[in-house]
Amino acid sequence: MNSTTYRSKNSQRQPLAGLAANCRAWLLVVIVCIVVSSPARACPFCTSLKPTLTQRRAASRVVALAEFSSPKEKDANSRRFRIHQVLTGQKLLSTDDRPSLEVAGSDSPGTLAIIMGSGPAKSSLRQLRWTATPVDELSYAYFARSPSLRRPAMERLAYFARYLEHRDALIAADAFQEFAHASYDEVVQVEKKLSAAKLRQWLVDDAVRPQRKGFYGLALGIVSEPAGAKTTNAEFLKALIEKPAGDFRAGFDGILAGYMVSRGPEGIELIRKRFLADPTAAVGDVRHAAAALRFYQQFGTSEHGKLVTIAMRELLDRPDMAAGVITDLARWKDWQSLERIAPLYRQKEYAQSEVRRAVIGFLLVCPKPAAATALADLRRFDPAGVAAAEKQLAVLGATDK
C-alpha cells in the first residue's frame, strides 16, 4: 500500500475559541450547504448509488429463495411463488407456503428469484412491500454467502473484492455497489485484496461500465504495485491523464485522484498546470480536476493541503466555477485569497447571484479586518444585493439548524 498517511473525514478537529469564531464556523457550514448542493457519498466518484443486496436483506422482514410458479394473476403485479428456502422471517413464511404476492415483474414460471418483504413489525405477508430479484444458482450462492452488515468492513469488502467485474451482471453490479458505499478509509484497509493488474485492465476495457472507472482509477492509486510490473501504477494513470480525449471522460475525476494519491505534490502540480492554469483545457476535464482536488484536500496527506489550495485558486479566473471555488477556499480557511475574491463582486463577469452570495459569505467568515472593510464597501456599493445575500444566508442557516 502507498506509504502516505491519509486523513480520515472523521478525524478530530481542534475546538474553536470565542464566540466570534463559533459564529464564523456556523456560517461557514451554511455557506457550504448553499453552494455545494450534491449529497455526500461514500465514494465521490461513484454514480448511480443503489442499495446493495445485503443492505436490502438487512432492511427486510422476510428473505427467501423462491420460484415463479404461475403467470401473473388478475392483478398485473401479483405473482405466485413456490418457496425453496427461507433465510429470514421463518415465522411469517415457510417452504410449505405458495404465497401470491404483489411483486412487479414479468418473469416466466420456473424463474428463480430472491424475494424480500419489508414493512412494520406487525405486518402480514400481504402487507409487506415485496421485491423480487431474478437469480440463478451462481448469483444466489453469492448472495447467500455474503457477509451481513454486522460483520467488520474489512471482512465484507474482502469478500466482495473477488466479484468485481464478475461475468454475472447481477454479481458484478452488486459487488461494485458494496465498494461504492464503503468509506475511503475502508477501501484503503483492503487494498491488498484488490488486483492492480485487473484494475489496469478494467480502466482501458470499453466493455466495463464507464461509471465504475472513477472508482477503479482511485483504487489503482491506492493499491500496491504488482510484482515485476514494467510500468508503475502512477505511470499508468499519468498515461491515461495525458491521452487525448473529448470534452467528457467518464470516471476521469477518480483517475486524477488516484494519481494524486500515488504521487502527491507531483500529481497536484500536473493537474494544476494541465487543467486549471490552462484556459484552453476542456471544461469537462477542468470540472473533473476540481472534484479530484476536493477529494484530496479531504483525504490526502495533510502537508499537501496548501498545494491543493494554490491549485484551486486558478479557477477563480473562471466565472462559471467561481461560486464553488470561493466556497472551497472559505472552507479550507484560505484567507490569503481575500484580495482576489473581494473584487469579484463588482465585476460584471461574476454578476451571477450565486457567485456574489459566495463572495459575501467568504467576507463574513474571513477573520481578517480587511474582510470587514471590503464588506462595508460592498454594502455601500450594492446595499440591496448584499442585504439579499445576507438574508438568504441567514434563512438557510436557520433551516440548516
Topology diagram in text:
Elements: H1 19-35, H2 53-58, E1 62-70, E2 78-88, E3 100-102, E4 112-118, E5 129-134, H3 137-145, H4 153-161, H5 169-181, H6 184-189, H7 196-204, H8 213-222, H9 233-242, H10 252-263, H11 265-276, H12 283-299, H13 305-313, H14 322-331, H15 338-341, H16 353-365, H17 369-381, H18 383-400
Antiparallel strand pairs: 1-2, 1-4, 2-3, 4-5
Helix pairs in contact: 1-14, 1-16, 1-18, 7-8, 8-10, 9-10, 10-11, 10-12, 11-12, 11-13, 12-13, 14-16, 16-17, 16-18, 17-18
Write a concise synopsis of the structure shown.
The chain is α+β, with helices and mostly antiparallel strands and 401 residues long. It has two domains: 53-136, OB fold (Dihydrolipoamide Acetyltransferase, E2P); 196-400, Leucine-rich Repeat Variant (Alpha Horseshoe).
Order of helices and strands: HHEEEEEHHHHHHHHHHHHHHHH
- What's the tally of helices? 18
Mean pLDDT: 86
Please name the CATH topology of the largest domain: Leucine-rich Repeat Variant
Helix percent band:
40-55%
CATH class of the largest domain: Mainly Alpha
Q: Write down the overall geometry.
A: globular
* Main β-sheet description: 5 strands, antiparallel
The tally of structural domains comes to 2
List how many beta strands DSSP finds. Answer: 5
CATH architecture of the largest domain: Alpha Horseshoe
Distance between the termini: 41 Å
Secondary-structure-based class equals alpha+beta
Rg is: 26 Å
Order of the strands making up the biggest sheet: 3-2-1-4-5
Taking pLDDT < 50 over at least 5 consecutive residues as the criterion, the unreliable ranges are: 1-23, 32-41
Strand content: 5-15%
